[in-house]
Amino acid sequence: MFDLINKWLMYYGVNESLSPYFAKSIIVIIVILLSVIADLIAKKIILNALMAYVRKSKNKWDDKLLEKKVFERISHIAPVLVVHAFASTFPVYQVWIERFAFSYMIFIGLLVADSLLDAINDIYRTYEVSKVKPIKGYLQVVKIFVNVMGVIAIIGIMINRSPWLLLSGIGAMTAVVLLIFKDSILGLVASIQLTANDMVHLGDWIEMSKYGADGEVIDITLHTIKVQNWDKTITTIPTYALISDSFKNWKGMQQSGGRRIKRAVYIDMTSIKFCTDEMLDRFEKIHYLTDYIQHKRREIEAFNKEHHIDTSREVNGRRLTNIGTFRAYIQNYLRNHPNIHHRMTLMVRQLSPTEYGLPIEIYAFTNDTAWASYESIQADIFDHIFAVIPEFDLRIFQNPTGYDLRSALNRNKISSEGLS
Protein backbone atom coordinates (compact mmCIF):
# COMPACT_ATOMS: atom_id res chain seq x y z
CA MET A 1 0.00 0.00 0.00
CA PHE A 2 2.84 2.39 0.83
CA ASP A 3 4.46 1.91 -2.61
CA LEU A 4 1.13 2.36 -4.36
CA ILE A 5 0.34 5.63 -2.59
CA ASN A 6 3.92 6.87 -3.02
CA LYS A 7 3.79 6.25 -6.78
CA TRP A 8 0.38 7.87 -6.98
CA LEU A 9 1.69 11.03 -5.24
CA MET A 10 4.74 11.27 -7.53
CA TYR A 11 2.48 10.77 -10.54
CA TYR A 12 0.57 13.89 -9.52
CA GLY A 13 3.75 15.89 -9.17
CA VAL A 14 4.69 15.56 -5.51
CA ASN A 15 8.41 15.93 -4.86
CA GLU A 16 10.15 12.57 -4.74
CA SER A 17 11.86 13.33 -1.40
CA LEU A 18 8.57 14.45 0.24
CA SER A 19 6.22 11.84 -1.19
CA PRO A 20 7.25 9.07 1.34
CA TYR A 21 6.28 11.33 4.26
CA PHE A 22 2.96 12.24 2.66
CA ALA A 23 2.34 8.57 1.89
CA LYS A 24 2.93 7.56 5.52
CA SER A 25 0.66 10.39 6.73
CA ILE A 26 -2.10 9.25 4.38
CA ILE A 27 -1.75 5.64 5.60
CA VAL A 28 -1.97 6.82 9.23
CA ILE A 29 -5.13 8.78 8.40
CA ILE A 30 -6.58 5.75 6.59
CA VAL A 31 -5.79 3.49 9.56
CA ILE A 32 -7.40 5.96 11.97
CA LEU A 33 -10.50 6.28 9.77
CA LEU A 34 -10.81 2.50 9.39
CA SER A 35 -10.36 2.06 13.16
CA VAL A 36 -13.11 4.60 13.82
CA ILE A 37 -15.37 2.90 11.27
CA ALA A 38 -14.65 -0.53 12.81
CA ASP A 39 -15.43 0.88 16.26
CA LEU A 40 -18.70 2.41 15.03
CA ILE A 41 -19.74 -0.82 13.30
CA ALA A 42 -18.93 -2.87 16.41
CA LYS A 43 -20.75 -0.53 18.83
CA LYS A 44 -23.52 1.10 16.84
CA ILE A 45 -24.57 -1.83 14.67
CA ILE A 46 -23.41 -5.17 16.06
CA LEU A 47 -23.61 -4.21 19.76
CA ASN A 48 -26.98 -2.45 19.41
CA ALA A 49 -28.41 -5.43 17.52
CA LEU A 50 -27.10 -7.78 20.19
CA MET A 51 -28.55 -5.59 22.97
CA ALA A 52 -31.94 -5.56 21.26
CA TYR A 53 -31.89 -9.35 20.99
CA VAL A 54 -30.90 -9.75 24.66
CA ARG A 55 -33.71 -7.46 25.84
CA LYS A 56 -36.26 -9.49 23.89
CA SER A 57 -34.84 -12.80 25.09
CA LYS A 58 -36.65 -14.59 27.93
CA ASN A 59 -33.36 -15.76 29.43
CA LYS A 60 -32.10 -13.86 32.46
CA TRP A 61 -28.43 -14.78 32.26
CA ASP A 62 -27.81 -12.77 29.09
CA ASP A 63 -29.31 -9.70 30.82
CA LYS A 64 -26.61 -10.02 33.46
CA LEU A 65 -23.93 -10.21 30.75
CA LEU A 66 -25.35 -7.03 29.25
CA GLU A 67 -25.61 -5.31 32.65
CA LYS A 68 -21.95 -6.05 33.43
CA LYS A 69 -20.90 -4.68 29.98
CA VAL A 70 -19.34 -7.94 28.77
CA PHE A 71 -20.38 -7.36 25.14
CA GLU A 72 -19.47 -3.68 25.27
CA ARG A 73 -15.93 -4.46 26.38
CA ILE A 74 -15.51 -7.09 23.68
CA SER A 75 -16.38 -4.42 21.07
CA HIS A 76 -13.22 -2.47 22.05
CA ILE A 77 -11.14 -5.10 20.26
CA ALA A 78 -12.41 -4.07 16.79
CA PRO A 79 -10.23 -0.91 16.34
CA VAL A 80 -7.05 -2.63 17.51
CA LEU A 81 -7.59 -5.45 14.99
CA VAL A 82 -7.46 -2.83 12.23
CA VAL A 83 -4.27 -1.34 13.67
CA HIS A 84 -2.68 -4.79 13.88
CA ALA A 85 -3.69 -5.61 10.29
CA PHE A 86 -1.91 -2.47 8.98
CA ALA A 87 1.23 -2.92 11.09
CA SER A 88 3.18 -4.29 8.15
CA THR A 89 2.77 -0.97 6.28
CA PHE A 90 5.18 0.55 8.84
CA PRO A 91 8.16 -1.84 8.64
CA VAL A 92 10.30 0.21 11.02
CA TYR A 93 7.66 0.21 13.76
CA GLN A 94 5.91 -3.04 12.84
CA VAL A 95 7.25 -5.05 15.79
CA TRP A 96 6.25 -2.43 18.38
CA ILE A 97 2.86 -1.83 16.80
CA GLU A 98 2.13 -5.55 16.94
CA ARG A 99 3.35 -5.79 20.54
CA PHE A 100 1.17 -2.87 21.66
CA ALA A 101 -1.79 -4.29 19.73
CA PHE A 102 -1.39 -7.74 21.35
CA SER A 103 -0.95 -6.18 24.79
CA TYR A 104 -4.06 -4.07 24.32
CA MET A 105 -6.07 -7.12 23.24
CA ILE A 106 -4.91 -9.02 26.35
CA PHE A 107 -5.88 -6.01 28.49
CA ILE A 108 -9.35 -5.99 26.93
CA GLY A 109 -9.53 -9.74 27.52
CA LEU A 110 -8.81 -9.16 31.23
CA LEU A 111 -11.61 -6.58 31.43
CA VAL A 112 -13.98 -9.00 29.68
CA ALA A 113 -12.98 -11.84 32.05
CA ASP A 114 -13.55 -9.54 35.05
CA SER A 115 -17.03 -8.56 33.84
CA LEU A 116 -17.86 -12.16 32.93
CA LEU A 117 -16.97 -13.40 36.43
CA ASP A 118 -19.09 -10.63 37.98
CA ALA A 119 -21.98 -11.67 35.74
CA ILE A 120 -21.54 -15.33 36.73
CA ASN A 121 -21.74 -14.31 40.40
CA ASP A 122 -24.91 -12.26 39.79
CA ILE A 123 -26.51 -15.14 37.86
CA TYR A 124 -25.57 -17.58 40.64
CA ARG A 125 -27.08 -15.29 43.29
CA THR A 126 -30.50 -15.60 41.64
CA TYR A 127 -30.60 -19.19 42.92
CA GLU A 128 -31.45 -20.05 46.54
CA VAL A 129 -28.32 -22.19 46.89
CA SER A 130 -26.22 -18.99 46.72
CA LYS A 131 -27.36 -18.06 50.25
CA VAL A 132 -25.98 -21.33 51.55
CA LYS A 133 -22.87 -21.63 49.38
CA PRO A 134 -21.70 -18.23 48.01
CA ILE A 135 -19.01 -18.37 45.31
CA LYS A 136 -17.90 -14.74 45.26
CA GLY A 137 -14.73 -15.52 47.20
CA TYR A 138 -13.73 -18.27 44.77
CA LEU A 139 -14.42 -16.03 41.77
CA GLN A 140 -12.15 -13.39 43.28
CA VAL A 141 -9.37 -15.97 43.47
CA VAL A 142 -9.94 -16.72 39.78
CA LYS A 143 -9.81 -12.98 39.05
CA ILE A 144 -6.48 -12.63 40.83
CA PHE A 145 -5.04 -15.63 38.95
CA VAL A 146 -6.31 -14.41 35.54
CA ASN A 147 -5.05 -10.85 36.12
CA VAL A 148 -1.63 -12.04 37.28
CA MET A 149 -1.31 -14.30 34.22
CA GLY A 150 -2.50 -11.45 31.96
CA VAL A 151 0.04 -8.98 33.37
CA ILE A 152 2.80 -11.58 32.96
CA ALA A 153 1.72 -12.18 29.35
CA ILE A 154 1.74 -8.43 28.60
CA ILE A 155 5.21 -8.01 30.12
CA GLY A 156 6.45 -11.04 28.15
CA ILE A 157 5.12 -9.60 24.88
CA MET A 158 6.60 -6.15 25.52
CA ILE A 159 10.08 -7.45 26.34
CA ASN A 160 9.86 -10.29 23.80
CA ARG A 161 10.34 -13.04 26.38
CA SER A 162 8.38 -16.22 26.99
CA PRO A 163 5.76 -15.83 29.77
CA TRP A 164 6.84 -19.25 31.09
CA LEU A 165 10.33 -17.85 31.63
CA LEU A 166 8.86 -15.05 33.71
CA LEU A 167 6.75 -17.55 35.66
CA SER A 168 9.84 -19.60 36.50
CA GLY A 169 11.42 -16.41 37.85
CA ILE A 170 8.36 -15.77 39.99
CA GLY A 171 8.66 -19.30 41.34
CA ALA A 172 11.96 -18.27 42.90
CA MET A 173 10.13 -15.41 44.65
CA THR A 174 7.53 -17.63 46.31
CA ALA A 175 8.14 -16.14 49.75
CA VAL A 176 7.58 -12.61 48.42
CA VAL A 177 4.45 -13.71 46.54
CA LEU A 178 3.06 -15.38 49.67
CA LEU A 179 3.70 -12.18 51.65
CA ILE A 180 1.97 -10.02 49.03
CA PHE A 181 -1.04 -12.32 48.76
CA LYS A 182 -1.18 -13.25 52.47
CA ASP A 183 -4.66 -11.77 52.98
CA SER A 184 -5.97 -13.44 49.82
CA ILE A 185 -4.64 -16.83 50.89
CA LEU A 186 -6.08 -16.44 54.40
CA GLY A 187 -9.38 -15.31 52.91
CA LEU A 188 -9.51 -18.28 50.54
CA VAL A 189 -8.82 -20.77 53.33
CA ALA A 190 -11.42 -19.06 55.55
CA SER A 191 -14.02 -19.07 52.76
CA ILE A 192 -13.52 -22.80 52.21
CA GLN A 193 -13.85 -23.51 55.95
CA LEU A 194 -16.92 -21.28 56.34
CA THR A 195 -18.63 -23.04 53.44
CA ALA A 196 -17.53 -26.57 54.40
CA ASN A 197 -18.64 -26.14 58.02
CA ASP A 198 -21.86 -24.29 57.09
CA MET A 199 -20.98 -21.45 59.49
CA VAL A 200 -22.40 -18.33 57.87
CA HIS A 201 -24.56 -17.46 54.87
CA LEU A 202 -25.96 -14.38 53.21
CA GLY A 203 -28.92 -13.09 55.19
CA ASP A 204 -27.75 -14.60 58.51
CA TRP A 205 -27.96 -12.47 61.63
CA ILE A 206 -24.54 -12.55 63.26
CA GLU A 207 -23.11 -10.76 66.29
CA MET A 208 -19.40 -10.10 66.74
CA SER A 209 -18.72 -7.69 69.60
CA LYS A 210 -15.01 -7.36 68.82
CA TYR A 211 -15.82 -5.61 65.53
CA GLY A 212 -19.04 -3.93 66.68
CA ALA A 213 -21.08 -6.10 64.30
CA ASP A 214 -24.68 -6.95 65.12
CA GLY A 215 -26.88 -7.37 62.08
CA GLU A 216 -27.48 -9.15 58.77
CA VAL A 217 -24.75 -10.48 56.48
CA ILE A 218 -25.17 -8.69 53.12
CA ASP A 219 -21.98 -9.69 51.31
CA ILE A 220 -19.32 -12.40 51.55
CA THR A 221 -16.12 -11.85 49.57
CA LEU A 222 -12.62 -13.28 49.54
CA HIS A 223 -11.25 -10.71 51.96
CA THR A 224 -14.22 -9.30 53.87
CA ILE A 225 -17.73 -9.99 55.12
CA LYS A 226 -20.10 -7.03 55.24
CA VAL A 227 -22.68 -6.84 58.02
CA GLN A 228 -25.49 -4.31 57.95
CA ASN A 229 -26.13 -3.49 61.59
CA TRP A 230 -29.63 -2.82 62.88
CA ASP A 231 -28.85 0.90 63.02
CA LYS A 232 -28.20 0.67 59.25
CA THR A 233 -24.44 1.16 59.57
CA ILE A 234 -22.11 -1.23 57.73
CA THR A 235 -19.41 -3.19 59.55
CA THR A 236 -16.66 -4.87 57.53
CA ILE A 237 -15.07 -7.94 59.08
CA PRO A 238 -12.01 -9.79 57.67
CA THR A 239 -13.19 -13.17 56.41
CA TYR A 240 -10.50 -15.07 58.29
CA ALA A 241 -11.61 -13.35 61.56
CA LEU A 242 -14.72 -15.55 61.57
CA ILE A 243 -12.41 -18.56 61.74
CA SER A 244 -9.85 -17.20 64.21
CA ASP A 245 -12.34 -15.44 66.54
CA SER A 246 -15.71 -16.41 67.96
CA PHE A 247 -19.01 -14.96 66.77
CA LYS A 248 -22.69 -15.59 67.42
CA ASN A 249 -24.98 -16.69 64.59
CA TRP A 250 -28.69 -16.26 65.33
CA LYS A 251 -29.71 -18.51 62.44
CA GLY A 252 -30.51 -21.40 64.79
CA MET A 253 -32.93 -19.22 66.72
CA GLN A 254 -34.63 -18.03 63.53
CA GLN A 255 -34.96 -21.57 62.18
CA SER A 256 -36.31 -22.94 65.47
CA GLY A 257 -39.27 -20.57 65.40
CA GLY A 258 -38.79 -19.48 69.02
CA ARG A 259 -36.86 -16.66 70.69
CA ARG A 260 -35.88 -16.79 74.33
CA ILE A 261 -37.14 -14.56 77.11
CA LYS A 262 -34.80 -14.66 80.12
CA ARG A 263 -35.52 -11.83 82.49
CA ALA A 264 -36.13 -11.54 86.23
CA VAL A 265 -38.21 -9.33 88.50
CA TYR A 266 -36.80 -8.60 91.97
CA ILE A 267 -39.20 -9.07 94.88
CA ASP A 268 -38.75 -7.27 98.20
CA MET A 269 -38.10 -10.19 100.55
CA THR A 270 -39.81 -8.43 103.48
CA SER A 271 -43.11 -8.76 101.62
CA ILE A 272 -42.94 -12.59 101.45
CA LYS A 273 -45.29 -14.38 103.88
CA PHE A 274 -47.60 -17.38 104.43
CA CYS A 275 -51.04 -17.20 102.83
CA THR A 276 -54.02 -16.81 105.16
CA ASP A 277 -57.42 -18.36 104.46
CA GLU A 278 -58.64 -14.92 103.45
CA MET A 279 -55.80 -14.57 100.94
CA LEU A 280 -56.46 -18.06 99.54
CA ASP A 281 -60.16 -17.25 99.10
CA ARG A 282 -59.11 -14.15 97.18
CA PHE A 283 -56.56 -16.03 95.06
CA GLU A 284 -59.09 -18.77 94.28
CA LYS A 285 -61.18 -16.22 92.38
CA ILE A 286 -58.28 -15.55 89.99
CA HIS A 287 -58.96 -17.47 86.77
CA TYR A 288 -55.46 -18.95 86.33
CA LEU A 289 -55.28 -20.00 90.02
CA THR A 290 -58.69 -21.54 90.73
CA ASP A 291 -57.73 -25.15 90.01
CA TYR A 292 -54.27 -24.69 91.56
CA ILE A 293 -55.61 -23.31 94.86
CA GLN A 294 -58.31 -25.96 95.16
CA HIS A 295 -55.84 -28.76 94.46
CA LYS A 296 -53.21 -27.38 96.87
CA ARG A 297 -55.75 -26.83 99.64
CA ARG A 298 -56.88 -30.46 99.46
CA GLU A 299 -53.29 -31.72 99.23
CA ILE A 300 -52.02 -29.63 102.18
CA GLU A 301 -55.04 -30.40 104.36
CA ALA A 302 -54.61 -34.14 103.74
CA PHE A 303 -50.86 -33.98 104.48
CA ASN A 304 -51.27 -32.03 107.73
CA LYS A 305 -54.11 -34.30 108.87
CA GLU A 306 -52.17 -37.45 108.04
CA HIS A 307 -49.13 -36.25 110.01
CA HIS A 308 -51.19 -34.82 112.88
CA ILE A 309 -49.82 -31.32 112.41
CA ASP A 310 -50.86 -28.58 114.85
CA THR A 311 -51.94 -25.88 112.39
CA SER A 312 -52.61 -23.29 115.08
CA ARG A 313 -49.05 -22.11 114.52
CA GLU A 314 -48.12 -20.97 110.97
CA VAL A 315 -44.66 -22.47 111.21
CA ASN A 316 -46.02 -26.00 111.59
CA GLY A 317 -46.83 -28.24 108.63
CA ARG A 318 -47.23 -27.25 105.05
CA ARG A 319 -48.65 -23.89 103.95
CA LEU A 320 -48.85 -21.90 100.76
CA THR A 321 -46.83 -18.71 100.46
CA ASN A 322 -47.70 -15.63 98.44
CA ILE A 323 -44.42 -15.91 96.48
CA GLY A 324 -45.08 -19.57 95.58
CA THR A 325 -48.64 -18.77 94.54
CA PHE A 326 -47.34 -15.86 92.48
CA ARG A 327 -44.93 -18.20 90.65
CA ALA A 328 -47.78 -20.62 89.94
CA TYR A 329 -49.89 -17.78 88.57
CA ILE A 330 -47.12 -16.60 86.21
CA GLN A 331 -46.53 -20.19 85.07
CA ASN A 332 -50.21 -20.67 84.18
CA TYR A 333 -50.39 -17.20 82.64
CA LEU A 334 -47.50 -17.99 80.28
CA ARG A 335 -48.93 -21.42 79.39
CA ASN A 336 -52.11 -19.74 78.22
CA HIS A 337 -50.38 -16.85 76.45
CA PRO A 338 -50.98 -16.98 72.66
CA ASN A 339 -47.48 -15.67 71.82
CA ILE A 340 -45.49 -18.18 73.90
CA HIS A 341 -43.98 -21.23 72.17
CA HIS A 342 -45.50 -24.15 74.07
CA ARG A 343 -43.17 -26.83 72.64
CA MET A 344 -40.08 -25.16 74.11
CA THR A 345 -38.82 -24.77 77.67
CA LEU A 346 -41.12 -22.74 79.90
CA MET A 347 -40.47 -22.15 83.57
CA VAL A 348 -40.69 -19.55 86.30
CA ARG A 349 -37.80 -20.07 88.66
CA GLN A 350 -36.42 -18.58 91.85
CA LEU A 351 -32.77 -17.51 91.75
CA SER A 352 -30.39 -16.91 94.64
CA PRO A 353 -31.36 -13.92 96.79
CA THR A 354 -29.27 -10.79 96.28
CA GLU A 355 -28.95 -7.37 97.89
CA TYR A 356 -31.60 -6.25 95.41
CA GLY A 357 -34.19 -8.76 96.59
CA LEU A 358 -35.36 -12.20 95.49
CA PRO A 359 -35.10 -12.69 91.66
CA ILE A 360 -38.05 -14.48 90.06
CA GLU A 361 -36.88 -15.32 86.54
CA ILE A 362 -39.16 -15.93 83.59
CA TYR A 363 -37.56 -18.38 81.16
CA ALA A 364 -39.68 -18.97 78.04
CA PHE A 365 -39.69 -18.66 74.25
CA THR A 366 -41.89 -16.49 72.06
CA ASN A 367 -43.34 -18.02 68.89
CA ASP A 368 -42.40 -14.93 66.86
CA THR A 369 -38.68 -14.38 66.23
CA ALA A 370 -38.98 -10.96 64.55
CA TRP A 371 -37.15 -8.43 66.71
CA ALA A 372 -39.92 -5.83 66.97
CA SER A 373 -42.61 -8.45 67.67
CA TYR A 374 -40.41 -10.19 70.24
CA GLU A 375 -39.77 -6.97 72.15
CA SER A 376 -43.47 -6.11 72.09
CA ILE A 377 -44.48 -9.56 73.42
CA GLN A 378 -41.84 -9.44 76.15
CA ALA A 379 -42.89 -5.93 77.20
CA ASP A 380 -46.58 -6.95 77.36
CA ILE A 381 -45.77 -9.93 79.56
CA PHE A 382 -43.75 -7.90 82.04
CA ASP A 383 -46.27 -5.05 82.01
CA HIS A 384 -48.79 -7.58 83.26
CA ILE A 385 -46.41 -9.08 85.80
CA PHE A 386 -45.51 -5.70 87.32
CA ALA A 387 -49.18 -4.75 87.52
CA VAL A 388 -50.29 -8.02 89.13
CA ILE A 389 -47.59 -8.30 91.82
CA PRO A 390 -49.50 -6.16 94.41
CA GLU A 391 -52.46 -8.58 94.11
CA PHE A 392 -50.27 -11.13 95.91
CA ASP A 393 -49.30 -8.71 98.68
CA LEU A 394 -45.79 -8.58 97.27
CA ARG A 395 -43.60 -5.56 96.56
CA ILE A 396 -41.04 -5.02 93.79
CA PHE A 397 -37.61 -4.10 95.11
CA GLN A 398 -36.42 -0.66 94.03
CA ASN A 399 -33.62 1.52 95.36
CA PRO A 400 -34.91 4.64 97.12
CA THR A 401 -35.45 7.62 94.82
CA GLY A 402 -35.67 11.32 95.56
CA TYR A 403 -39.44 10.98 95.68
CA ASP A 404 -39.21 8.25 98.34
CA LEU A 405 -36.92 10.37 100.49
CA ARG A 406 -39.16 13.44 100.22
CA SER A 407 -42.21 11.35 101.09
CA ALA A 408 -40.47 9.92 104.15
CA LEU A 409 -39.44 13.39 105.31
CA ASN A 410 -42.96 14.70 104.84
CA ARG A 411 -44.40 11.82 106.86
CA ASN A 412 -41.92 12.45 109.67
CA LYS A 413 -42.75 16.16 109.63
CA ILE A 414 -46.49 15.47 109.82
CA SER A 415 -45.93 12.99 112.68
CA SER A 416 -43.83 15.51 114.58
CA GLU A 417 -46.45 18.23 114.16
CA GLY A 418 -49.18 15.85 115.34
CA LEU A 419 -47.26 14.95 118.47
CA SER A 420 -46.58 18.58 119.29
What does this structure look like?
This protein is an alpha+beta fold. Helices cover 58% and strands 11% of the residues. The protein has four domains: 2-126, no CATH class; 160-251, SH3 type barrels; 257-273 and 322-420, Alpha-Beta Plaits, CATH 3.30.70.100; 275-320, no CATH class. The protein has helices spanning 2-11, 19-56, 61-67, 70-74, 77-85, 94-124, 129-132, 136-158, 163-171, 174-180, 182-196, 241-244, 251-256, 277-284, 290-306, 322-335, 371-388, 402-419, and strands spanning 205-208, 213-220, 224-229, 234-238, 248-249, 259-267, 347-350, 358-366. A hairpin with a 7-residue loop joins strand 7 and strand 8. It is rod-shaped. It starts with a helix and ends with a helix. The model has no long low-confidence stretch (mean pLDDT 82).
- Strand order, largest beta sheet: 4-3-2-1-5
Strand tally is: 8
User: How much is the radius of gyration in Å?
Assistant: 41 Å
Contiguous runs where pLDDT drops below 50 for at least 5 residues: none
Arithmetic mean of pLDDT: 82
Order of helices and strands: HHHHHHHHHHHEEEEHEHEHHHEEHH
| Class from helix and strand fractions | alpha+beta
Question: Helicity, in percent?
Answer: 55-70%
Give the biggest beta sheet: 5 strands, antiparallel
Query: Shape, please?
Result: rod-shaped
Per DSSP, the total helix count is 18
User: What share of residues are in beta strands?
Assistant: 5-15%
Structurally, how many domains make up the residues?
4
End-to-end distance: 129 Å
